[in-house]
Amino acid sequence: MGAAEQQADRAGWVGAAERQTDREGWEGAAERPADRAGRLRRLGTPVGILAAVTAAFGYVGTVDPNDPGHYPVCPLLRLTGVLCPGCGGLRSAHAFITGDLGTALSANAIATVGYVLFAAVWVLWLTRAWRGQPLRIALAPAWWWGVGAVLLVFTVVRNLPFGSALAP
């Protein structure tokens, strides 16, 4: 493992590009039919996920969550009056898909950042699937605790009077 791969492994991104040869030693730029079928199979999952996300965003972009009666109310908000980290996510998605980034951020900043992060990881996933490399994102537990802490602080602050700017 080279220095670049070790550095990538320490950062939490695992996997290295490797050239592969078959049993006859074939190595070339032309793609064989078996390779093409394998590539299509590898691309199936990321493309399927994109299709599902596109359909969901298309629906939310078409059916406005600001009009009452189309979507259920958040159960935590209904029962306790507390805004969860996802409250305002549908309004954020609607504003995001219609191009109003300011409204999307004000409805739910965490969700808006999540949309962009999802897009970046999806592009990485598709690229690695195209090349025949697995996508393994191995984050250390400290990262997961950090994400949890950010969500907790976001939830608490948006429910306090001085954090009303974060409330939807």
Describe this structure in words.
The chain has 168 residues and is mainly α. Helix content is 61%, strand content 2%. It contains seven helices and two strands. It has a two-stranded antiparallel sheet with strand order 1-2. Helix 2 (33-62) packs antiparallel against helix 6 (109-131) and helix 5 crosses helix 6 (109-131). It starts with a helix and ends in a 10-residue tail after the last helix. The model is unreliable at 13-24 (pLDDT under 50).
Structural class, judged by helices and strands?
mainly alpha
Between the first and last Cα atoms, what is the distance in angstroms? 48 Å
Q: Enumerate the strands of the largest sheet in spatial order, edge to edge or round the barrel.
A: 1-2
* Overall pLDDT score: 80
Rg, Å, rounded: 21 Å
What string, H for helix and E for strand, traces the elements in order? Answer: HEHHHHHEH
Strand content: under 5%
* Unreliable runs: 13-24
List keywords for this structure.
single chain; 168 residues; mainly alpha; two-stranded antiparallel ribbon; 2 strands; 2% strand; globular
Summarize the structure.
The chain has a two-stranded antiparallel sheet. The protein has 168 residues and is mostly helical.
Describe the protein's topology:
Elements: H1 3-11, E1 13-14, H2 33-62, H3 75-80, H4 89-97, H5 101-107, H6 109-131, E2 136-137, H7 141-158
